[in-house]
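Dear Dr. L.,

I hope this message finds you well. Following up on our conversation about the binding site, I have prepared a predicted three-dimensional model of the protein together with zinc ion. For your records, I am including the exact sequence and ligand specification that went into the calculation, followed by the structure tokens. Please feel free to forward this to your student if that is useful.
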Amino acid sequence: MKTRNLIFLTAVILSTACGVNDSDPGDFNVIPYPESVEFYGGRFNAAGKEFHLDSSLDREIADAAGKFAEHLTLVTGKTSSVSFDEGKRGFIFCKDSLAQAESYTIQIKRNSVLVSAGDYNGFIWAMQTLGQMFPPEWYSDEKADVAFTLPCGCIKDKPRFGYRGVLIDSGRHFFSVEEIKRCLDIMSIYKENRFHWHLTEDQGWRLEIKKYPRLTEIGSRRAQTQIEFKADSLDGIPHGGYYTQDQIRDVVDYAAKRGITVIPEIDLPGHMQSALASYPSLGCTGGPYQVAQTWGVKKDVLCVGKEETFTFIEDVLTEVLDLFPSEYINIGGDEVPKDRWENCPACQKRIRELGLKDKDGHSAEQYLQNYVTARVQKWLNDRGRKMIGWEEILEGELAEGATVMTWRGTGENVDSRIWNYDVVMSPRGYMYIDRYQSHEQDREPFSIGAYLPVENVYGYEPYDDVPEYGKSRILGVQANLWTEFIGTDEYLEYMLLPRLAALSEVQWCQSSKKEWSRFRKSLDHSVEIYKKLGLTWCEYAWGIVGMGENRQKARTAQELQQYLDERE
Ligand code: ACM
Ligand code: ZN
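The resulting structure of the complex is given below.
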């Protein structure tokens, strides 16, 4: 580049504060990569620096900054304290009232780090960025013998999507509060801001409901679990567990402090066998039912011919609203076989009373599901909440104002009426992180099948195949971790990582900022974070296949081809 051009370019970059990344100090490994990053040369040493907070900052932001300073004190061994005062040196936190939601700016000079944002999440994400810019020892709980310095420069950042979700299925397998918190920690590091908590399933009801104690007394335990594809592969080992309301409040609060909203899912009217086992009169046949021990879609669903069922749903949701401040409540709605409704006098009576008929390729029973969805949606809307549900709620008729979560396909093969609604994209081909992460499936822990390596998650572009008018309806992207065969914390983390890292760039970065080689290099730094946090991750991208004691060197390309040929 000619010198004159360079001077001109530099002037443009400086005038917009942050420009292109033209002098990367080589250790910038922040995931998701910020919108703009510029380095000036030189470094700021964070050890022992004071924090000066703008007096207009909310208490919550000051508390979060206080925690950051406390942690800095711990890892550096030098005291950093926080005060509401003006300062020119050290960390300076300022409110930027004009900033977009969740955006932030960090300006690092040799003697100061100016952090500005307009809302709580903006400050949280700025601090997560700073954390990833420090050496990985930042993530340990003890004084570390390394320099906590930051390269001078400027970072401007904002998310591509407002909804950046991760689903964990606590229904099929129960995970402790401690483990859920570990997952929230890593989600927050990657700026993922919606925890979709799948709390009810055929195989287990995990949420204490005071008015219906049998849901957890009976519904949270199953006698045994299917452990392979065949339904008779039962392990003979009871499995159970549930979250008390105090634990739920604790998790919701823990998540909120980390910038994450917890969206509960009460999956209805299907996936309810554990509720039916607890209260058999909620089913069409009256049972008896058992908490499911096998996987797959179950025919026993809520009987929606009976008013008692709606009383149950509303009572449960009343307690749910009390526990979860989230704007969105997920009501599931997926995989609802109509077999029982077709043969149930009460459901058929309701169909007649509502005048529902087979129409436009949908059965009267499908319209009966629409009736349930609309009734629950109105109930939620009347209480100031929004309803979100799986793609199937779109079949037949869906009331305005619903939000739909895709799972069966990408933009190309979803029902085009979906673009009349707000949408969260979660296509299974890219976002079902219960799939294998390598081609060497006999050496990975047993999973539901298929193949979704970290690079395929990374490669997802949510606007692909979406009509122009539909793009503005996409609120964001979510990955789902279903847990049929995932019964341990270690395996749960192995499935999440490093795919949550890849997910975060799909959710946060403009597509022009995504770059596999840069991301892949930064994953090495993420792995150092996982080590410090004591997390398990899939190492296939580093040439290791398997988990825990079964870790092995991956096959060479030649061996792999031979193995794949033989497997055909
Ligand atoms: C789903 O996978 N049934 C949402
Ligand atoms: Zn019925």
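In brief: Confidence is low (pLDDT under 50) at residues 1-17.

With kind regards,
A. P.
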